[in-house]
């Protein structure tokens, strides 16, 4: 664990002890109302902040996240075996939702890790720390972000009168995501929270594209071009339709039924469907998982046939091209 992470955990949890479980693990898994009630009470007792995260414009179903993670052995095991992508597959995030694994890990650590220790592992006494550190460290082992120096003067397009007189000042920041050239960050400036990009200014390609920003933080605008994943199928109608997971089929079936029953409550469907999925027993869930496996086999078969047709078409085009060249000669 990085030194910065250890200090934050010690500062927030020093001399604290876990309370007794507010309910059994089986109860919080099977009854959503028990889960939400005990989770809120747990954070109140621990004196920690609790709020429901929003991902892709929808509230994250923390009970589904808790169930899927504990089914795989808990936070430490999921991190060690790198199964966050597998956990995230049940949420059906939209194509525009990036870094889902990182975000799920972050929210689980801050909202459910200590709850898991008490209700799943039944640990009592002083609070424990995870075997695998969070936030993620850089490959060199250095802390990725502790203090960000923010200098408003170079940003001539939008000067701030309240800070124009000062050259620079320190602000605490949090990493929200990671990409090739840097990180997506949130920075606390007094009562204001700014979202931006922490990038490496020594990289020529990025500095040339944004010459007016010399500091570490630049305004961040979400890239709307990430939907290009659909272009392959739209460009070639014969390309096979990608397979769906068992949860995707369950989600589609439930969504169709709920839409006819509650047409004005569509924003709540994700949470309702997640709770329905959690309440299924192993046999009921296996029905949809088998459908997902069959669809996966269908996609592999159709993709193989598509590639064979593509090779045959290319071979024919080459042969026709050679014949046309011979005729011209």
TrEMBL record:
Record's protein name: HMG box domain-containing protein
High-level lineage: Eukaryota, Viridiplantae, Streptophyta, Embryophyta, Tracheophyta
Keyword line: DNA-binding, Nucleus
Gene3D superfamilies reported for this sequence: ARID DNA-binding domain, High mobility group box domain
A Pfam cross-reference name: ARID
Listed GO MF terms: DNA binding
Residues of the DNA-binding region: 240-307
The ARID domain, residue ranges: 29-120
Start and end residues of each stretch annotated as Disordered: 210-242
Start and end residues of each HMG box domain: 240-307
Keyword field contains Coiled coil: no
InterPro entries, per the entry: ARID_dom, ARID_dom_sf, ARID_HMGB9-like, HMG_box_dom, HMG_box_dom_sf
GO cellular component, one term: nucleus
Organism superkingdom: Eukaryota
Bias (Basic residues): 223-232
